[in-house]
Amino acid sequence: MLNRRHIRIKVMQAIYAFKGGESDSFDKEQKFLLFSLDNLYNLYLLQLSLLIELQKKAEDRLEKTRNKLLATKEEKNPNKKLVNNEFLLLLKNNEPLQDTLNQYKITNWELDDEYVDVIFKDILASDLYKEYMQTKTSDFKEDRNFIVDVFKEIVAPNDKLFDYIEDKNLTWVDDLPLVNTAILKLIRKSKPSVASNYFVPKLYKDIEDKQFAIELFKKTLLNRTALNEEISGKTKNWDSDRIASIDFVLLQMSICELNKFPSIPVKVTINEYLEIAKEYSTPKSSIFINGILDKLVKEYHDEDKLNKTGRGLM
Predict the structure, then answer these.
(1) pLDDT tens digits, residue range 248-269?
(2) Backbone torsions φ then ψ of 131, nearest 5 degrees
(3) Could you tell me if 192 and 90 are in contact, meaning their C-beta atoms sit under 8 angstroms apart?
(4) Which of these, 142, 145, 129, 143, lies nearest to 188 by C-alpha position?
(5) What share of the chain is helix, strand, coil (3-state, %, to 5)?
(6) How many angstroms separate the CA atoms of 266 and 250, rounded?
(7) Cα 147 to Cα 154: distance, rounded to the nearest angstrom
(8) Can you give the pTM of this predicted structure?
(9) Which of 105, 154, 160, 249 is the most exposed place for a label (fewest CB within 10 A)?
(10) Is 236 or 165 the better-scoring residue by pLDDT?
(11) What does the alpha-carbon distance between residue 7 and residue 4 come to, in Å, rounded to a whole number?
């Protein structure tokens, strides 16, 4: 689920918040970094569990409509299409997912049911719902595509849900786009019969990704003096106060990656940090960072300092 760019963003945030020096212990900050990465999985489960709650909400509404004292003929025999949505039932009845929700104690919607109500009412008022409910029967593909549209157009952009997530955990704000994208991909690729663990993917693609997060964090902090000297040497015409703090951290990390991670291609490193700068720093930051890194790479190349292993890594 996690990709390397998001790992770099989390490391950037941890380094930005670190106020100590090279000789200081940063065990506390490293633990927070790993907690922040691991906590992304809670957000994933929270968003997925919301879809299950929407199915339950539809079920509850249908029963209440049926049991009205003066229910009409139509209300006594309502359209069950949303209640019987095959994708939602697949999600709801997935045992590994239910076990994982219990393990992680994802019970938010029991206490904060009003947010499920907000989303559910938005669905009922939408053209998507009206079009979907024009018939009483459907197949898995139609049910799945309906949920894709609902998640993309109603759940993901909901401001009240965003505020709720931000209030629950500030680090989730940066995680939300990644989590929502992962969920959309998962829904789109789902089939009537999926592997039992389909809805509980691993947080890290492999152990190397988790190790990359730890090593990038540690090596950047442990080599701050040397990294800062490299930056100073290429920014002599710049007042240090004019360099954005985020830019300084991104330069430290990218230079560390160029020097201390031989298996990562130079182009990958540069492109990743330019993209992060575009999203998290000033409009001109990516140009500034690109200029510094370009000079350094040429210098390293001329002095044969680029220690890169494998094909196509220069």
Answers:
(1) 999 999 999 999 999 999 999 9
(2) -70, -40
(3) yes
(4) 145
(5) 70, 0, 30
(6) 15
(7) 10
(8) 0.88
(9) 105
(10) 165
(11) 5
| CA 301-302-304 angle, 5° bins | 60
**CA 252 vs CA 13, 216, 299: distances in Å:** 13, 10, 17
Q: How far apart are CA 5 and CA 36, in angstroms?
A: 15
71-79's contacts with Cβ under 8 Å and 24+ in sequence apart are 79/133, 79/136
d(CA 304, CA 311): 16
Give the closest residue to 225 by CA, choosing from 198, 256, 192, 201: 256
Residue 233 and residue 295 in contact, taking contact as beta carbons nearer than 8 Å: no
SS3 labels along 62-125: HHHHHCCCCCCHHHHCCCCCCCCCHHHHHHHCCHHHHHHHHHCCCCHHHHCHHHHHHHHHHHHC
Q: Which is nearest to 123 in space by CA: 155, 101, 164, 81?
A: 155
pLDDT tens, residue by residue, 47-80: 999 999 999 999 999 888 777 767 676 767 788 9
Place of tokens 């894709």: 148
**116-156 pLDDT per residue, tens:** 999 999 999 999 999 999 999 999 999 999 999 999 999 99
Q: How far apart are CA 314 and CA 310, in angstroms?
A: 9
| Nearest residue to 235 (alpha-carbon basis) of 282, 291, 306 | 291
DSSP conformational letter for 242: G
